């Protein structure tokens, strides 16, 4: 997790580019914490699109009196990604998880000892009788 405030407006999550693993960062919850004012706090995510262009997308607009917390249901992102407090003074706490998937050699040989499963024939679907 990380916390965005008036003094720390952004946080960048990055991984070692020479790492031979796939990384997934999932954002779970964005919430206001102690000391937050009743003002709009807009959190945006800055990343890269499929054309490698930088894009900024607002993901949360929190206000203490009406929406102090937002569940993002594990919103998945590819690092590197920056979280920025685009409006408000926070403090806003972001929580999530980081998964590392180690790549394995994609070339493999089929094992001849494995028994093949026989396909079962399914009976045709008949119309219901009235």
From TrEMBL:
Gene3D superfamilies, alphabetized = Nucleoplasmin core domain (2.60.120.340)
GO CC annotations? cytoplasm; nucleolus; nucleoplasm
What SUPFAM superfamilies does the entry give?
A: Nucleoplasmin-like core domain
The subcellular location is: Nucleus, Nucleolus
Q: What is its main location?
A: nucleus
Q: Where in the sequence does UniProt note compositional bias of the Acidic residues kind?
A: 107-122
- In the record, what terms sit under GO molecular function? chromatin binding; histone binding; RNA binding
At the top level, the lineage of the source is Eukaryota
Its biological purpose is as follows: Plays a role in the regulation of diverse cellular processes such as ribosome biogenesis, chromatin remodeling or protein chaperoning. Modulates the histone chaperone function and the RNA-binding activity of nucleolar phosphoprotein B23/NPM. Efficiently mediates chromatin remodeling when included in a pentamer containing NPM3 and NPM.
- Note the subunit structure: Interacts with NPM (via N-terminus). Forms a pentamer with NPM at a ratio 4:1 (NPM3/NPM). Two pentamers form a decamer.
Query: Member of which family?
Result: Belongs to the nucleoplasmin family.
What is the protein's given name? Nucleoplasmin-3
* Species whose genome carries this gene: Sagittarius serpentarius (Secretary bird)
What lineage does UniProt assign to this protein's organism? Eukaryota, Metazoa, Chordata, Craniata, Vertebrata
């Amino acid at each position: 997790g990380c916390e965005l405030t008036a003094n720390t407006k952004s946080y960048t999550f990055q991984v070692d580019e020479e790492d031979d693993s796939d990384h997934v960062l999932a954002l779970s919850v964005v919430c206001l914490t102690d000391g937050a004012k009743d003002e709009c706090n807009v959190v945006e995510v800055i990343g890269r699109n499929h054309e490698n262009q930088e894009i900024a997308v607002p993901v949360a607009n929190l206000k203490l009196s009406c929406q102090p917390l937002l569940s993002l249901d594990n919103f998945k992102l590819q690092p590197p990604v920056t979280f920025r407090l685009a409006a408000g003074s926070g403090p806003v706490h972001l929580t999530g998880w980081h998964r590392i998937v180690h790549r394995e050699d994609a070339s493999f040989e089929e094992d001849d000892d494995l028994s093949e499963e026989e396909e079962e024939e399914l009976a045709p679907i008949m119309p219901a009788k009235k």
